[in-house]
Amino acid sequence: MPINPDEDNMERGENQKEDSASPQKKPRNSLSNDESNGAESSIEKSGGKRSDYISWEDYFMGLAVVASMRSKDPRTQVGACIVNQNNRVIGVGYNGFPNGCSDDKFPWTREKNTDNKNLYVVHAEMNAILNKNSESAMGCTIYVTLFPCNECAKCIIQSGIKKVVYLQEKAKKEVKLKDKAAKKMLKAAEVETEKFQPSKNWNTIGRKFN
């Protein structure tokens, strides 16, 4: 059956009217020019970066806290982080048994015989010093979650570390002669000791120790 040209043109005209009458959908997540310019200007006003980022001190002590969470000791978990003058981490450690000494076979108790963990555990500070990369620790700072004992103080002094930043000290009732000796040696060797002062953002990192 032949198509009437007039009817065909009329039908096309009706379709074009319907298309032009239907609303145009905007693509999702698109911003108008005004919205886009407003977002850019707000970034420019704020300086273009976050203001609530953590400080270097929070960062390094945070690494020490995270390292402590690797310790298998059921009673005391300690972490340490060594940092050079360029804010570069050169060593991290936590308290645990030496390489080759199984965490499942050696004791975690404190018995009076050879089943005493203190005879075997390598402290966090010592592990950080022994496990550091090839860089020298001379002039570095060590961040620790617990003030060093006398043996760790010796290693800190001998390695050339010049500053100890600590998160906690032992409770007064737990302080022993070796802890007093540690402070005496560090002071004599002119190794600075400083209690960690958290920033307002520390709570996001240090909840484990709050």
TrEMBL record:
Keywords: Hydrolase, Metal-binding, Nucleotide biosynthesis, Zinc. One of its GO terms (cellular component) is cytoplasm. Residues 1-47 are annotated as: Disordered. Residues 55-199 form the CMP/dCMP-type deaminase domain. Its EC number is 3.5.4.12. It catalyses: dCMP + H2O + H(+) = dUMP + NH4(+). Its cofactor is Zn(2+). It is an enzyme of class 3 (hydrolase). It comes from the Eukaryota. GO terms for molecular function: dCMP deaminase activity; zinc ion binding. Pfam families: dCMP_cyt_deam_1. Residues 29-40 have a biased composition (Polar residues). Residues 10-20 have a biased composition (Basic and acidic residues). GO terms for biological process: nucleotide biosynthetic process. Belongs to the cytidine and deoxycytidylate deaminase family. PANTHER family: DEOXYCYTIDYLATE DEAMINASE, DEOXYCYTIDYLATE DEAMINASE-RELATED. Supplies the nucleotide substrate for thymidylate synthetase. This is Probable deoxycytidylate deaminase. It comes from Menopon gallinae (poultry shaft louse).
